[in-house]
């Protein structure tokens, strides 16, 4: 009984990271695919979206998506000296670390 459960969990994990159809949905994933970065591909962007879904709120995801078009926005938030910006930046760093670990 345990093997089928492990297999299903592995299959879901691969599909969530783009191993299935390669389709990308979500705010962060779409921004990733539409970016002009050489490394952006549907599998990577789907994986990043999966991590975003697990670590960021919808409003944080919308903000992170803007960083793909304008990386300077990230620096503005990082340099901002407000409790809101500091809290967001902490969540963003968790997202970045989790994305690197899960997506390569």
What does it look like?
The chain is mainly α. It is built from six helices and no strands. It has helices at residues 2-16, 27-34, 42-55, 58-69, 72-79, 83-103. Helix 2 runs antiparallel to helix 3. 22% of the residues are buried. Mean pLDDT is 84; it is low at 1-21.
List the helices and strands and how they pair.
Layout: H1 2-16, H2 27-34, H3 42-55, H4 58-69, H5 72-79, H6 83-103
Summarize the structure.
This protein has helices at 2-16, 27-34, 42-55, 58-69, 72-79, 83-103.
Please provide the count of β strands: 0
> Largest sheet at a glance?
none
Give average pLDDT, whole number: 84
Which structural class is indicated by helix and strand composition? mainly alpha
Q: Helix proportion of residues, in percent?
A: over 70%
Following the backbone from N to C, one meets helices and strands in this order, namely HHHHHH
Radius of gyration: 15 Å
Q: Which range does the strand content fall in?
A: under 5%
Treating each run of at least 4 consecutive H or I residues as one helix, how many helices? 6
Shape: globular
Q: Distance between the terminal alpha carbons, to the nearest Å?
A: 31 Å
